[in-house]
UniProtKB/TrEMBL annotation:
<protein>
    <submittedName>
        <fullName>ABC transporter ATP-binding protein</fullName>
    </submittedName>
</protein>
<dbReference type="GO" id="GO:0016887">
    <property type="term" value="F:ATP hydrolysis activity"/>
</dbReference>
<keyword id="KW-1278">Translocase</keyword>
<dbReference type="InterPro" id="IPR013563">
    <property type="entry name" value="Oligopep_ABC_C"/>
</dbReference>
<keyword id="KW-0547">Nucleotide-binding</keyword>
<dbReference type="GO" id="GO:0015833">
    <property type="term" value="P:peptide transport"/>
</dbReference>
<dbReference type="Pfam" id="PF00005">
    <property type="entry name" value="ABC_tran"/>
</dbReference>
<keyword id="KW-1003">Cell membrane</keyword>
<dbReference type="GO" id="GO:0005524">
    <property type="term" value="F:ATP binding"/>
</dbReference>
<keyword id="KW-0067">ATP-binding</keyword>
<dbReference type="InterPro" id="IPR050388">
    <property type="entry name" value="ABC_Ni/Peptide_Import"/>
</dbReference>
<dbReference type="InterPro" id="IPR027417">
    <property type="entry name" value="P-loop_NTPase"/>
</dbReference>
<keyword id="KW-0997">Cell inner membrane</keyword>
<keyword id="KW-0813">Transport</keyword>
<dbReference type="Pfam" id="PF08352">
    <property type="entry name" value="oligo_HPY"/>
</dbReference>
<dbReference type="InterPro" id="IPR003439">
    <property type="entry name" value="ABC_transporter-like_ATP-bd"/>
</dbReference>
<feature type="domain" description="ABC transporter">
    <location>
        <begin position="3"/>
        <end position="257"/>
    </location>
</feature>
Length: 322
């Protein structure tokens, strides 16, 4: 197994006390897998990314096991973890400026990434070669005028441009695991499609494993071979992308799928799921989703369902499948 997460617990200290966002969380990923984590805002998707990279904010604390290629990341020192970030794992943040140093030019930072990669591969590290590598990477993410872009500082670029610079950095570093947290939110739809295709190529051509974090099930379907649906910090359904979309089991997954607009020609009203996800300080008894569920029945209000197997590793957390 390439990535094995077991018994992961993540809490945040807040002024109202401690809130536990992930509890008993588990996830397995094979090499070359591309998995999407899908859920509404606040379901704990970014928290998972932060926990894997050990880049949670200071108020966050985590425990459990996150074993990547045989190493338990939660047991590594900060120095060892720094080495792993950028080479074995790379995270593209929702806010791309978080990934770049504001006082260094884009070119300087990309050259640093290219140097790390050349050292790791013991390949050509001449200035001319490194320069070619970064220009090529910027062209791959369809950034016009790469020679100009490399002279600028991150704040001199638009949000979409910065995001593409960060993606080009991932392209240069070719980590074993790429965690992309809503990487296309700041991009126009046309560029969004190009970036998604690029991520798919990275997965297919270099066998890079990808954890793609999104609230958009249709994007998840396009990019990943597996989808995990999260609600209020728990896994509600996990299945191969095709099966999850064509034969969704959990009422939450069904509601998410119904909310995806499919017919632009008719003026039909868009479906939306009523209500809002619960607060982590006041989780409902029983199934966390029961207050919004169309299929709710007695047991759902009293006991939280376990993850029930629907074949192999695939699971659903719903009493309907007991
Ligand atoms: N620094 C923090 N301090 C306290 N609570 C936090 C912190 N960061 C996140 N949380 C809480 O953790 C929960 C999960 O947040 P998280 O950002 O992981 O969700 P998400 O699914 O990624 O949402 P979004 O799609 O809006 O980014 C939320 O209730 C949020 O308020």
């Amino acid at each position: 197994m390439f990535l094995e997460i077991k018994d992961l617990k993540v809490s945040y200290k807040t002024v109202n006390g401690k809130s536990t966002v992930l509890n008993n969380f588990a996830l397995n990923l094979d090499k070359g897998d591309s998995i999407s984590i899908v859920g509404e805002s606040g379901s704990g998707k970014s928290t998972l990314g932060g926990a894997i990279t050990r880049l949670l904010p200071p108020s966050g604390e985590e425990s459990g096991e996150i074993v990547l290629d045989g190493k338990d990341l939660l047991k590594l020192s900060e120095d060892e973890m720094t080495l792993i970030r950028g080479t074995e794992i790379f995270m593209i943040f929702q806010n791309p400026l978080n990934s770049l140093n504001p006082v260094k030019t884009v070119g300087y930072q990309l050259i640093e990434a290219a140097k790390i990669k050349a050292e790791r591969d013991k390949s050509d590290a001449t200035e001319e070669h490194l320069n070619n590598v970064i220009i090529q990477a910027l062209k791959s993410v369809r950034l016009p005028d790469p020679e100009q872009i490399i002279k600028r500082f991150p704040h001199e670029l638009s949000g979409g441009q910065v995001q593409r610079v960060v993606i080009s950095m991932a392209l240069i570093l070719r980590p074993k695991l790429l965690i992309a947290d809503e990487p296309t939110t700041a991009l126009d739809v046309t560029i969004q499609a190009q970036v998604i295709n690029l991520l798919k190529e990275m997965n297919r051509d270099y066998g890079m494993s990808i954890i793609f974090i999104t609230h958009d099930l249709s994007l998840a379907y396009v990019i990943s071979n597996k989808i995990m649906v999260m609600y209020a910090g728990t896994i509600m359904e996990f299945n191969g992308s095709d099966l999850l979309v064509k034969n969704p089991r959990h009422p939450y997954t069904i509601a998410l799928l119904k909310s995806v607009p499919t017919d632009y020609k008719t003026n039909s009203k868009l479906y939306y799921l009523k209500g809002a996800p619960p607060s982590f300080f006041n989780l409902p008894r029983g199934c966390r989703f029961h207050t919004r569920c169309e299929k709710v029945f007695g047991k759902c209000e009293v006991e939280e369902p376990p993850l029930i197997s629907i074949g192999g590793d695939y699971k659903v957390r719903c009493w309907l499948f007991e």
